[in-house]
Design brief:
alpha+beta; 24% helix; globular
C-alpha cells in the first residue's frame, strides 16, 4: 500500500498550483472513511453547501468531468470555476476567478491502511490583492478539510 500512496500523491494535476504565488498554502487531514466515500463528497459539487464552510450555492450542469464549468457562491462571492483534473478516487482540481484574482485548487486523495484516507489540498491565488488573502486561505483550507472529514465519517 505504501508504494501506491507515493505514486498517487506524485501524480501530476493538469494544472498545478503556483508554489511561488503571493498566496499559496497546503494542508492535509486523515479521514476515517474509505477513499471512495471521501472523494464522492467533494465530487458532488451540487451538495457542497451542506458541508463546505462558507459555500451557500454550488451548481454544476451536467457530469463532473474535466472541462466542466460550475458556479458557486462562497462567503458572498460568486465564483465561476472550471474543473481541470478529475481522477476518480485520486484527485480533483479546478480553477476560478474572483475580480482580478486567479485561483487554483487541487485536492488529492490517498488511501491508507484501515480504510482511511489522507486528503491533501494545495491552493494558490495570483493577481492584484492576492497577498492579502494568504491568512484567510490557510484558515479556510483547514475548515474545508474538517468539513469534509465530518461529512465523510457520518456513514
Amino acid at each position: 500500500m505504501l508504494g501506491f500512496t507515493t505514486v498517487s500523491y506524485a501524480q501530476k494535476m493538469n494544472i498545478e498550483t503556483d508554489t511561488h504565488a503571493k498566496a499559496y498554502a497546503t494542508d492535509s487531514i486523515m479521514i476515517n472513511a474509505p477513499v471512495e466515500e471521501v472523494y464522492s463528497r467533494l465530487a458532488d459539487i451540487n451538495h457542497w453547501p451542506g458541508w463546505f464552510q462558507g459555500v451557500t450555492e454550488a451548481k454544476v450542469n451536467g457530469p463532473v468531468k474535466e472541462g466542466a464549468v460550475f458556479v458557486w457562491k462562497a462567503k458572498g462571492y460568486k465564483i465561476e470555476s472550471k474543473l481541470h483534473t478529475i481522477r476518480p478516487n485520486s484527485a480533483i482540481g479546478w480553477t476560478g476567478k474572483v475580480w482580478w484574482i486567479n485561483a487554483v485548487h487541487n485536492w488529492r486523495f490517498i488511501p491508507v491502511a484501515n480504510r482511511q484516507t489522507k486528503v491533501v489540498i494545495q491552493e494558490s491565488f495570483s493577481g492584484l490583492g492576492s497577498s492579502f488573502m494568504k491568512n484567510s486561505m490557510k484558515e479556510d483550507m483547514r475548515n474545508d478539510l474538517i468539513g469534509l472529514k465530518n461529512v465523510s465519517e457520518k456513514n
